[in-house]
């Protein structure tokens, strides 16, 4: 039986206990990085310290000028499973090619290598690693194809460091995409998502068009269109404290256009 975390655990984001066999489930965390040298060591330690022995970490680095890829390689030497196999690996890509493309490449590799579940996670500490056990527990106990770490279900919260303007913009962007697409996922723009390998195979990552942040919306819409059950688990979303944001105008414009593109495409298929 999956044990629900208590109210305190939900508030603090601490891990709920998973049955031993569930903790052995092959789960790969895919983490795209671009200039995250100040964050990657801490993230790797946090993930490896979780009581989830089946968890592996795949860093997808786009040749970060600050040496993130090399730092990650050195870290990867440190972490091994009991049978001696590596728990952490690094995929090196040649150029900065967008968060969406990095995710598509890393998630495909994770599924090819045998992951049963794949978790998307940013490297900047925004996503609570203490919620991973709960998300995996929900996936295993409900058979959902996608479990969203959600800022916008009851219990979900945003960093206090975000001013009212930024909070409103985030809410608005989320409402914009879900209204155009007619979906009921509360956090459709969020980037902390656990996928079953079956859902990822059905979606076909090679067919995903988003280069940047609209990847999150495109993927969730594809899961819904394929008929997969989607669950949402409340999370607290922290602000980045180390390093710089990679958000720029080009990816913002892509995010504005993408819901319309997806809508037109899906109507064409009806
Ligand atoms: N490999 C790769 N990773 C990227 C790219 N763009 C962003 N990332 C990573 O994707 C994750 C999310 O990017 P952020 O810059 O934190 O985006 P954000 O969360 O919208 O922005 P902040 O609120 O400023 O943190 C981070 O781990 C980045 O390092 C890219 O082009 N390639
Ligand atoms: Mg961030």
UniProtKB/TrEMBL annotation:
Source organism superkingdom: Bacteria
Pfam families assigned: Glycos_transf_2
Keywords of the record: Glycosyltransferase, Transferase
Domain Glycosyltransferase 2-like per the UniProt entry, residue ranges: 28-201
InterPro entries xrefs: DPM1-like (IPR039528), Glyco_trans_2-like (IPR001173), Nucleotide-diphossugar_trans (IPR029044)
PANTHER family found in the cross-reference section: DOLICHOL-PHOSPHATE MANNOSYLTRANSFERASE SUBUNIT 1 (PTHR43398)
Protein family per UniProt: Belongs to the glycosyltransferase 2 family.
Protein name per Swiss-Prot or TrEMBL: Polyprenol monophosphomannose synthase
Species assigned in the record: Streptomyces wedmorensis
Taxonomic classification: Bacteria, Bacillati, Actinomycetota, Actinomycetes, Kitasatosporales
């Amino acid at each position: 039986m999956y044990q629900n975390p208590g109210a305190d655990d939900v508030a603090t984001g601490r891990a709920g206990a998973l049955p031993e066999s569930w903790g052995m489930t092959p789960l790969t965390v895919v983490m795209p990085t671009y200039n995250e040298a100040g964050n990657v060591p801490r993230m790797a330690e946090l993930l490896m310290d979780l009581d989830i022995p089946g968890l592996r970490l795949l860093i997808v680095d786009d040749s970060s000028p600050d040496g993130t890829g090399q730092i990650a390689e050195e870290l990867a030497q440190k972490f091994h499973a009991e049978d001696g196999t590596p728990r952490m690996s690094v995929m090196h890509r040649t150029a900065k090619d967008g968060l969406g493309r990095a995710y598509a490449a890393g998630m495909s590799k994770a599924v090819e290598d045998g992951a049963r579940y794949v978790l998307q996670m940013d490297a900047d500490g925004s996503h609570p690693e203490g919620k991973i056990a709960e998300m995996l527990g929900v996936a295993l106990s409900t058979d959902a194809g996608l479990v969203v770490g959600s800022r916008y279900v009851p219990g979900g919260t945003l960093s206090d460091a975000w001013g009212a303007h930024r909070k409103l913009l985030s809410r608005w962007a989320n409402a914009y995409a879900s209204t155009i697409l007619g979906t009921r996922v509360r956090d459709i723009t969020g980037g902390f998502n656990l996928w079953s390998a079956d859902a990822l195979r059905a979606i076909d990552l090679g067919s995903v068009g988003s280069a940047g942040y609209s990847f999150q919306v495109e993927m969730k819409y594809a899961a819904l269109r394929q008929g997969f059950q989607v669950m949402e688990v409340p999370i607290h979303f922290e602000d980045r404290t180390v390093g710089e944001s990679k958000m720029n105008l080009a990816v913002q414009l892509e995010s504005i256009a993408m819901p319309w593109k997806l809508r037109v495409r899906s109507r064409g298929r009806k």
